[in-house]
Hints:
Layout: E1 5-9, E2 16-20, E3 26-27, H1 36-41, H2 45-48, E4 58-65, H3 85-99, H4 103-113, E5 124-128, H5 135-143, E6 153-155, E7 158-164
Antiparallel strand pairs: 1-2, 2-3, 4-5, 4-7, 6-7
Helix pairs in contact: 3-4
Amino acid sequence: MAPPYEVRMSSSRGIPYFFNTETKQSTWDAPPELSQAEVDALPGAAQHLRGEPRPSQVRASHLLVKHRDSRRPSSWKEANITRTKEEAIEILRGYQAEIGGSKEKFIELATKHSDCSSHANGGDLGVFKPGQMQKAFEDAAFSLPVGQFSDIISTDSGVHIILRTA
């Protein structure tokens, strides 16, 4: 599973810090359990650690699996979603294994299985700008190179695999 961290910028000190999205704790130093490659792959690392400019907009697709603690635990497939977050993550891990690096397989699985209405478009969310998506989703989508998949990202909506398409 992806480390539960993202890199954010301190508005008071103007320097980056590491925020644990599960515990809601922050630290100035990189978490010692992460390798340098894992730190470099964190949402927000490109912008806040390496100074790479953030694009003004991106286009992305996703495959969403909701769980009972999602903000709206229902979808076009299920009126009442009762799976745990851990079960939702395991489902996505299975999809990751099927996808490999195939965009075509991703689209197929998103169409069949995503708990988002975007399933009708193969998971395509269209173009969006900063501030239009939940922060963890936005940070992941904006930090991905075009054509790359995220690891599992958790938001209030559920758990996602994101594919940046433009």
